[in-house]
Write a structure and sequence with these properties.
By secondary structure, this protein is mainly beta. 0% of the residues lie in helices and 56% in strands. The protein has no helices and eleven strands. Strand 7 and strand 8 form a beta hairpin. The radius of gyration is 13 Å and the shape is globular. It starts with a strand and ends with a strand.
């Protein structure tokens, strides 16, 4: 079993930055991919970014491309989402998701609020 815990959310002014963390614990963490999603009030959950564990390639939603960066720290079993130039429309609960091929795990989410 894998547990994912997000942290790093908070309140920030438009144009500011935050770094979210997704820490994995439990059995050996070797997912195929780790993704960040977000869900704004009244909206469906949407994809934000993906990190492919083997090779380290990344992929971003058009809405965050050039502003967000996904990365990982092997030693800490942690995936980060660096968010720069934040906009009010980035306000949402952010979730990380790990896909091992046989199972998918979700964290509990962390709130990001961007004030304009």
């Amino acid at each position: 079993q894998v547990q994912l815990v997000e942290s790093g959310g908070g309140l920030v002014q438009a144009g500011g930055s935050l770094r979210l963390s997704c820490a994995a614990s439990g059995r050996t963490f070797r997912p195929y991919t780790v993704r960040w999603f977000r869900q704004a009030p009244g909206k469906e959950r949407e994809f934000v970014a993906r990190y492919n564990w083997s090779g380290g390639s990344t992929y971003y939603a058009d809405s965050v491309k050039g502003r967000f960066t996904i990365s990982r720290d092997n030693a800490k079993n942690t995936v980060y989402l660096q968010m720069n130039s934040l906009k009010s429309e980035d306000t949402a609960v952010y979730y990380c998701n790990a896909d091992t091929g046989s199972e998918r795990y979700w964290g509990q989410g962390t709130q990001v609020t961007v004030s304009s």
